[in-house]
Design brief:
This protein is α+β, with helices and mostly antiparallel strands and about 130 residues long. About 20% of the residues lie in helices and about 35% in strands. The protein contains two helices and four strands; from the N terminus they run βαββαβ.
């Protein structure tokens, strides 16, 4: 009787599927410790808010922190309609609008030095800043 050759197959390792909780948005790394500083900026002028965001990012980079942003949020448009005249030309109206520009900056694993320097930061008038840890 002739000898039969026995062949064995090797299974390839299966890649681990990533669940939704482990995924991060494109371009954003997953924070290791979860400690992050979220800075929200609001202003009526887009040039002022961009300069303020640049100042905050420079401070964070000076101390070696990881920065995500600035992320532009949708511009909030407040519209007001006002009558031009109250009696004769009642249907003549004017419309005014205010645009509120918003940005978000995330600083991952901030040092106490970064927090202290952000408290001492002088931003131009018209920029509203909110810092959450």
């Amino acid at each position: 009787m002739p000898a039969t050759k026995k062949t064995t197959t090797v299974k390839k390792p299966v890649a681990k599927k990533v669940t939704k909780k482990e995924e991060a948005p494109k371009g954003h790394p997953v924070p290791e410790t979860g400690l992050k500083l979220r800075i929200k900026l609001r202003a009526y002028d887009h040039k002022i808010i961009d300069n303020s965001a640049r100042q905050i990012i420079d401070i964070a980079n000076r101390f070696g922190a990881e920065v995500l942003g600035p992320v532009p949020l949708p511009t909030e448009i407040l519209k007001y309609t006002v009558n031009r005249s109250s009696f004769v030309h009642k249907n003549a109206r004017e419309q005014f609008e205010m645009r509120v520009h918003k940005r978000i900056i995330d600083i991952i694993n901030p040092n106490p030095e970064i927090i202290e320097s952000l408290r001492d930061l002088n931003l131009p008038s018209g920029v509203d800043i909110t810092i959450k840890i």
